[in-house]
Design a protein that fits this description.
By secondary structure, the protein is an alpha+beta fold. It has two domains: about 120 residues, no CATH class; about 55 residues. It has four helices and eleven strands; from the N terminus they run ββββαβββββαββαα. Strands 3-4-9-6-7 form a five-stranded antiparallel sheet. Strands 2-1-5-8 form a four-stranded antiparallel sheet. A two-stranded antiparallel ribbon has the order 10-11.
Length: about 190
């Protein structure tokens, strides 16, 4: 029905690598696959093996879970989009919303869950990509704030900054990006 690939980390893995929970759900125990360094696995490619793998209106939804967290949705593939690469963005121990139900006990290792679901009920956007954009925006904002702090002065309860601080920061940001092609990629790590 499907296969997965961890870019730069694995050969294609078939459905038999996963533990089948029931007729429509599969779990991959990341300790079995990579050991304790699951958080070093940053993305996953999932693909349907043929156009008949899923009935019309159905999708394969991808979820991730870490010890102490619940499963979080990362994206889906379906007949109109038979393959995709999803950033895994492993959840923290206190985050998550149980979207893929399973046996009652919390997981002892990181897991990837695959579930056949109605396409119409799944979120339309790639949750992993949205989180990656939010993290990037936060890191760029932190970079700006740190730059501004070095030029600030305090007057009473107000923070004073030069009027052209944004222009100064943006020029420095552009220069670093031009000199170092990998500079912007470090914001997303």
């Amino acid at each position: 029905m499907f296969g997965v690939l961890f870019p730069n980390r694995s050969f294609p893995l078939g459905i038999t690598t996963f533990n089948q929970v029931d007729d429509h759900r599969w779990i991959l125990d990341m300790n079995y696959f990579v050991g304790e360094a699951y958080d070093q696995v940053k993305e996953m490619c999932i693909f349907l093996l043929n156009e008949l793998a899923l009935p019309a209106g159905k999708a394969l939804a991808v979820y991730v879970q870490t010890p102490g967290s619940q499963f979080e949705y990362r994206g889906a593939v379906h007949s109109a989009c038979p393959s995709a690469v999803f950033p895994l963005l492993w959840p923290s121990a206190t985050s998550g919303q149980m979207l893929l139900t399973g046996p009652g006990a919390p997981c002892a290792s990181a897991q990837i869950g695959i579930s056949v679901e109605d396409l119409a009920t799944l979120p339309s956007l790639n949750v992993g990509q949205q989180k990656r954009v939010e993290e990037l925006a936060l890191k760029v904002g932190e970079n700006l704030f740190n730059f501004m702090q070095s030029f600030c002065s305090i007057e009473g309860d107000k923070l004073l900054i030069p009027m052209d601080i944004l222009n100064q920061w943006f020029k420095k940001f552009q220069e670093k990006a031009r000199r170092d092609p990998d500079y912007l990629n470090r914001f997303t790590l």
